[in-house]
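Posting this for the archive.
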Amino acid sequence: MKAHYIVELTEDEREQLEALTRKGKPGARRGTRARILLLAHQMKSSESIVEALGSSLSTVYRTKRRFVEGGVEHALTDAKRPGGSRKLSPKDHATLVALACSEPPEGRGRWTLKLLSDRLVALTEHDDVSAETVRRRLHELDLKPWQKRMWCIAEVTPQFIAQMEHILELYAAPPDPKRPLVCFDETLKQLVGRVVEPLPAEPGKSLREDHHYHRNGSTSLAMFFAPHHGWREVRVLESRNYAAFAYLMKELVDEHFPEADVIQVVMDNLNVHCKGALYKTFPPDEALRILRRLEFNFTPVHASWLNMVEIELGVLAKQCLDQRIGDRQKLAREVAAWTAARNEEHATIRWLFNVDDARRKLARHYPENLLPNPVLR
């Protein structure tokens, strides 16, 4: 014969359970058990509780028993279940890691869960290993062998460090109206025209665009970005060459910052980004006049991420260029509208990476054995 468990709640316990049932989403099980205890406290029979809550007699019985044995929280919470033993041993884990970090088999571009589980069976004593088991173990190990990331791996030399810290010091310096900081770079844009006009969006339907398109070549976009001013200017180029660079530098000096003593320009090491470009394009006196107002600061090779304008070009690509634009004239109009709106907001970039961060994160690349002084006194 089953034991008969009587639920008698204190005032605090009753208030706790009532508060739990009033919450938006207390959890299905906890909410049901709280109501069972409250009804049992009111001397309701198990049958009437089942009828009121749509629960089962066994649930009501177990909830009462757990309350009598351990209190409110014990009644509301399930005991921890032991679960099954892990199928893969530590040695199997090591085998899985070695497989996932190795080259995939011939004829396959990358590992899949099925490939890994089949290979694991072949290399261990298991008769079967499910793809789900492999997925869970890889998730625990934070391994995703089917993913690839591409980046440019730079050699961090003392020269790299010197250029990097110079750029970071420029960013950290307070704004100087007579020595404005301007970041400069170019990006490529494919000119893609429509063959069929898209069907506009309407309730229940997204915009529909035909997959056919005309490729009308490509063009380059050049951007100036002054982070302290929240200003940028974008130019559509017919071609990216020495003359284009020279005329852009002349525009920067004569039109955008005519009152500045020296404009500090941050840019990458593209071959046309050089002082010689101005001498190739203008008479010597004119080239020298422009260069006297410019100070070129180059990011290290393979470190264009140090140029703030790269971030701004990313914003341009996402907000404006992610559409089919078939000719330079339309591209110029779209870019001009985006530039005007962005400048009106005075949008800028909050650069947080500084010299101290670089020395901490790249500490292993900094020279440990410093050179002795070879100068005789």
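The mean pLDDT is 88. The two ends are 104 Å apart (CA to CA).
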